[in-house]
Design brief:
It is a single chain. It is built from 2 helices and 4 strands. It is of the alpha+beta class. It has a two-stranded antiparallel ribbon with strand order 1-4. A two-stranded antiparallel sheet has the order 2-3. The radius of gyration is 15 Å and the shape is globular. The structure holds iron/sulfur cluster (2 copies). One iron/sulfur cluster binds next to α1. The site of one iron/sulfur cluster has 15 residues, from α2.
């Protein structure tokens, strides 16, 4: 049974979390992300941030480091980022 090996290109196992209890929707991470994949979305009457395309995240940690509320966590399981 010949099954073709399918490769789906680059898939980094990045875990990106924004703590909605901490995020104030200030937009700093949206401005700082070099991949332009952070966005604000409506969260009730407020705005919160999220990563809209994990496949493009390069785990540079800018969003995590720049967030004044320490609301962002970026992880790559098995990889020590810093
Ligand atoms: S920088 Fe932090 S507080 Fe500001 S929008 Fe991004 S996650 Fe929310
Ligand atoms: S880790 Fe870097 S590329 Fe990924 S969402 Fe944050 S700022 Fe953007």
């Amino acid at each position: 049974m010949g099954e073709a090996a399918m490769t789906q290109g680059k898939t980094l196992p990045v875990i990106h979390k924004v703590d909605t209890n901490k995020c104030t929707g200030c937009g700093v991470c949206v401005e700082q992300c070099p991949q332009q994949i952070m966005e604000l979305y409506a969260f009730g009457s407020k705005k919160k941030a999220r990563c809209k395309d994990l496949d493009l995240c390069v785990a540079c940690l800018y969003c995590q480091k720049m967030c004044p509320e320490v609301a962002v966590t970026v992880e790559m399981p098995g990889v020590k980022l810093w």
